[in-house]
Amino acid sequence: MPQIALVKPAAGATLAFSQREPDGQIFPTRQEIRAEVTGGDGYAEVTFALQRASRPGQLELLGTDDTPPYRVFWRPTADLAPGDELTFIATVNDLRWHVVSTQIERVKVAPTATAFGIRGATVPAITAAPPAAASLRVGELLTLTVAAEGTGPLEYQWLRDDAEIPGATDAALA
């Protein structure tokens, strides 16, 4: 069974970003988010996500890597609030029903004059989520509804057991 540890950045770290200017174009630098996986047979994928303290319960997908070293390179979005604490989450899946997660908390971004992302753009945030659990009688219909705000157009995709439900791409699922 695989085990996972986030090794970069450290919990409580403050990430500093600068910029580089190749050929007259200005690009903000990125930070490596890296996990180490032990155990298992060496075949796995690691999914990285981010949670902001200002948006509890909402995750932002950073990416997936299926080859060691397991890592993604990240830079903040334009709407990251100064001083917002971040939690980075890494989940390893060996594709044999073994899934393990770890996280590091209290990560911050150092103040900088560097612009990130598209000015004025906002990462979608869920404003109304469906219930985590529901009790139904046999034959009773359940409609799940979600609402989100952010720079659009926004797209929806409902999942069941980590798989996309074909055609379930509206804000409501019956």
Account of the 3D structure:
There is one protein chain. The protein is mainly beta. The chain has two domains: 3-109, Sandwich (Immunoglobulin-like), CATH 2.60.40.10; 124-174, no CATH class. 0% of the residues lie in helices and 43% in strands. The protein has strands at 3-8, 14-15, 19-20, 27-28, 31-38, 45-52, 59-65, 70-74, 86-93, 99-109, 125-128, 144-145, 147-149, 159-160, 163-164, 172-173. The strands form six sheets. The chain has a five-stranded mixed β-sheet, with no helix packed on it. Strands 1-5-8 form a three-stranded antiparallel β-sheet, with no helix packed on it. The chain is globular, with a radius of gyration of 19 Å. The model has no long low-confidence stretch (mean pLDDT 90).
Short description:
The protein has 174 residues and is mostly beta strands. It contains no helices and 16 strands. The chain has strands spanning 3-8, 14-15, 19-20, 27-28, 31-38, 45-52, 59-65, 70-74, 86-93, 99-109, 125-128, 144-145, 147-149, 159-160, 163-164, 172-173.
Task: Lay out the secondary structure.
Layout: E1 3-8, E2 14-15, E3 19-20, E4 27-28, E5 31-38, E6 45-52, E7 59-65, E8 70-74, E9 86-93, E10 99-109, E11 125-128, E12 144-145, E13 147-149, E14 159-160, E15 163-164, E16 172-173
Parallel strand pairs: 2-10
Antiparallel strand pairs: 1-5, 3-4, 5-8, 6-7, 6-9, 9-10, 11-13, 12-16, 14-15
